[in-house]
Amino acid sequence: MRMDDMLRLHYAPDNASLCVRLALEETALNYETVLVDRSKKAQKSQGFLAMNPNGLIPVLETPEGPMFETGAILLWLSEQSGGLMPAPGHPGRAHALQWLIWLSNTLHPAARMLFYPDQYSDSDAEAFRRITRQRLTGQLDLLENARHAAWIDADAPSVQGCYLAPMLRWLALYGGPTDWFVLDRWPRLQAFAKRIEQRNAARRSATAEGLGPTPFSNPTPCHPPEGSAT
After folding, report:
1. Global pTM?
2. What is the DSSP string of the chain?
3. What pLDDT does residue 4 have?
4. Could you say which residues of the chain have pLDDT below 70?
5. Phi and psi of 59, rounded to 5°?
């Protein structure tokens, strides 16, 4: 992809598109944003469904056509930018892929179950959330103690970090009672959150979406300049 090609990120504030915005801000790739108005269920509109038949945010319009699935978009961006992830053949590539897929297939779905229990179970919502919180606690424990996850402790940005940071924010703010989630229980993840939010890319993203000065380590509700987070 040429550096002057323009990408278009279809986003809503404080949604999964934030992971993609963070990655875009860490690259030299040109992009613009297109607001998806969740208050009007624009993600279910005919035009949006033509790009993502799942009706979920984000979509990234590329020279190769529109892309959906956060993990896939992040992987594609790492390949286009030549950074944010070890290149094919690099000895760190296998574990980087492992954690990107784990975030996409394990942690993110569990978080969605906490936020939208009615989409996953017809049982009592709070009972379902209680079980899901236990699952998420175990997953965060696993990540806190993970080997071969140098990206958690690195100063350099990564697509895995761009994916994880917003999820730590959401777990602190959304999905019913949040007193179960105290980030300093996981000091490695807390240090990661403090480090990434000091990056210029994160500061620009936080300003654009109204996330406040400590969006990942000590988040406050979103006050976006446009659109709605829910």
Report:
1. 0.96
2. --TTPEEEEEE-TTSTHHHHHHHHHTSS-EEEEEE--GGGTGGGSHHHHHH-TT--S-EEEETTEEEE-HHHHHHHHHHHHT-SSPPTT-TTHHHHHHHHHHIIIIIHHHHHHHH-GGGT-SS-HHHHHHHHHHHHHHHHHHHHT-SS-GGGT-SS--HHHHHHHHHHHHHHHSSS--TT--GGGSHHHHHHHHHHTTSHHHHHHHHHHT--SSTTTS------SSS---
3. 64
4. 1-4
5. -130, 140
